[in-house]
Amino acid sequence: MNSDRIDYHDPVMATEALEFLQPKVGQTVIDCTIGGGGHALGLAKAIMPGGKLVGIDRDDDALAKAAERLSEFSDGVILDKGNFGDVADIAWKLGVDSADGILFDLGVSSYQLDMPERGFSFMHDAVLDMRMDRSQRQTAEQIVNSYSERRLAEIFHDYGEERWAKRIARLIVDRRIKNPIHTTGELVDVIRSAVKNAGKEKIHPATRVFQSLRIAVNDELESLRKGLNAAIDMLNPGGRVVVLSYHSLEDRIVKETFARRAGRCTCPTGLPICACGAKTEIKILTKRPVMATDSEVRTNPRARSAKLRAAEKI
After folding, report:
1. Which of 46, 200, 217 is nearest to 127 (CA)?
2. Residue 235 belongs to a domain with what CATH number?
3. Based on the domain organization, do 42 and 122 belong to the same domain?
4. What's the CA angle centered on 63, arms 62 and 65, to 5 degrees?
5. Claim to verify: residue 175 and residue 230 sit in the same structural domain
6. Residue range(s) defining the domain that contains residue 175
7. What is the CATH number of the domain that holds 163?
8. Is the pLDDT of residue 270 over 80?
9. Percent with pLDDT over 90 in the chain
10. pTM above 0.85?
């Protein structure tokens, strides 16, 4: 892939992320979703010289662009392909066993949406792909054409909170019996026929189904649970973790993980003493999620749904 073809938009809430991470010269930071290197560039400028920046991404194109963008700091930057759920193993492999700051910028990137052949967007008719790591075997096309009606409905409901999940799943199965569904356009046609009053909704009728398929293809929510807990374990005392999420399912996982690691008891109501072993490991820095400013949303629409949460290791 020619990196000149890749158009990376401005990173979301870059100023706010840096303010919460508080990177300093000589520190070690990990960008678990480096993308085109937008957030990482600010981090590198803050910790160099003498610092170390580990950048992780599942997308080869993203890593190529990040390497180009961070070339002036190459002595202190290590990039590696991988799933952020495996951040601890990846960091250990690279000789890093702890960090002073860790950043997660979740979801699909703007350039991935803008490249029709990646199959993430319902705005372009292309092959149903949706893989962040194109070396993995499972694609959205395979899920749509092989999963049972019940499992499809569960994915659309659980990962997309789609009210028409069962009806969409049923029509997909009916359609694929006659002709397999290969493209995003073909899937959109099925969704439109399943969703009542499709033209009257505020969002495109395919939004929730495409979100849910992307999450399923890339196992995003389980990766987040695993990676966020590992990140907290890796932080040095006083180290900080910042997470940018873009839909309610992601934000709920971040909120609940922070609460639990901040010492919230999870025992059933009525127990005379705590039996879950709750202990306070972090201090939550954001009582409510931080949202992008109106001015940023005007120039960067992706920021509209973003929520930033941050915590500090005790």
Report:
1. 217
2. 3.40.50.150
3. no
4. 65
5. no
6. 117-218
7. 1.10.150.170
8. no
9. 79
10. yes
